Amino acid sequence: MIVRYESWGAWVKLESHAALVALDRKGVRSLGLDGGSAWREGAGPSAPVEVHMAVTARCGAGCDGCYLDARPDGAEPPREVLLRELDALRDAGVFTVAFGGGEPTTRDDIDVLAEAARARGMTAVLTTSGLGLTDARIDKLRGFSQVNVSYDGSSETYARVRGFDGAAAAERAIERIARAGIRAGVNVVLTRESFPRVRETVARARDLGACEAQLLRYKPAGRAASLDYLARRLTAEQARTLGPTLRELAGSLCASNDFHVRIDCALVAFLSADDELARNPARLTRFGVFGCEAGGALAAFTVDGRVAPCSFAGPTGLRATDLARHASDPELARWRNHVDAPPEPCASCSLRAVCKGGCKVVAAHLDGAHGPDPECPRVIADRASARKEAAA
Amino acid sequence: MSCGEGASREEAPPAESRPEVAHIVAVRVGHGANCSSIGSVIDTLFATATVGAAVFAAVVAALRVEEVRVVSPGGRAGDPEGEARPESEP
Question: Which range has the worst mean pLDDT, A134-138, B10-14, B21-25?
Fold first, then answer.
């Protein structure tokens, strides 16, 4: 196991199980360890546990909503630069590095980068569109602990999300990655077009050999930061029904415990509409559910070597190779600290400590500031009530 | 066992003081492999108490047998005299 001391105890990354464990001080002591200065000096910002690294901005897929605005002639940093960034991740005690882009599998040295991450003690994972993924390229992915394929549904649904039909290529990729003995997962972007078919999509992915489906909220970044965003995002009603939808997916597809469903940080805010979950935030905490961790447990490295709070946020002035100085970066602190004193209705929300105010990228896009997530059902209801009162 | 800089686990802890479920603040299951936003497994939220307990029991079992390597971000090396401020959770 890999232990990283924190003010409250330690993060522990298990090696026999795919799990990251938050252990309190007594638990750490029971391992025969002591946090020393990390405990003595009190709470300070922790280093990220996970960093998303854009290893290329090249991609020929041309997805309508690409958050990076990746293009066929996008920039691609040399390997030596990325190796220095991996050194910075190791030095900061980061546990997981997720390679993305752009299309990371177009790099001829993607296997070298995976091995470099592993040699530095990190878990390396990767996201791919699956387009053009030959057996030779799949063979280069063996160093990754998991590979997720972007898969939003069957042909028509996929095309409505991405602007072209890449479903067959994605399905082939899922199948072949799994058959090669590499853990395969899928990323499913939830738009108002893909949401009604999410059960069918996730079931299909499982049948193709995926071990996990991660549901992603559509976010206004890159090419998705346009007026079109309003027509593609989930409807308010769909957002309200996320909880029951997840309950149904878990009950019907995860019973045998060999397939899991994840949600991304930005979807956590929608759980405020689910009475059962909202009444039991401790359960979400206990199972390690992360809301907005931008600038906190999560950071992103941009393709030009800068640190961003998350992949959808603009970069800070901090160089990736200087990640160890993350605690003193004012922009990362601004993202991280929002949850300390949020305005209503976040302040009185039972999920506040987990959700952390919802997606700040969405808030900044729609409201122009780091306020409550304007697509959160609780925020929508609160604003509607305020409008009603004002009108009265 | 191998320990990194600052580690202070010099011998196996006595059986009576090994990690218990009560020491676990949170468990994040799985690797996740999305490169754009951080994800969390949620089917465990809806699982029966038995399944949930099994997850924690498996974690405790692993904590008791896995070798330890400590990574200490800058200035956070282990110190056996360390103790002070109130604890807060992740």
Answer: B10-14
Domain locations in chain B as residue ranges: 43-71
Window 25-44 of B, Cβ < 8 Å to A: 25-44
Which secondary-structure segment (H or E) carries A242? helix A242-253
Closest in A37, A289, A310 to B37, CB measured? A310
Asked if the structure places residue A368 within a domain, the reply is no
Let me know whether A301 and A324 are in one domain. Answer: yes
In a domain, A369, yes or no: no
Q: Say whether B77 sits in a helix, a strand or coil.
A: coil
Side-chain half-sphere CA neighbours of A384 within 13 A = 8
The ipTM estimated for the assembled molecules is 0.94
Give the model confidence (pLDDT) of A102-142 as tens digits: 999 999 999 999 999 999 999 999 999 999 999 999 999 99
pTM: 0.93
- Verify cis geometry, omega within 30 degrees of 0, for the bond prior to A102: yes
**B89: confidence class by pLDDT, cuts 50, 70, 90:** low
Alpha carbons A187 and A129: distance in angstroms, whole number: 9
B83 contacts A21? CB cut-off 8 A: no
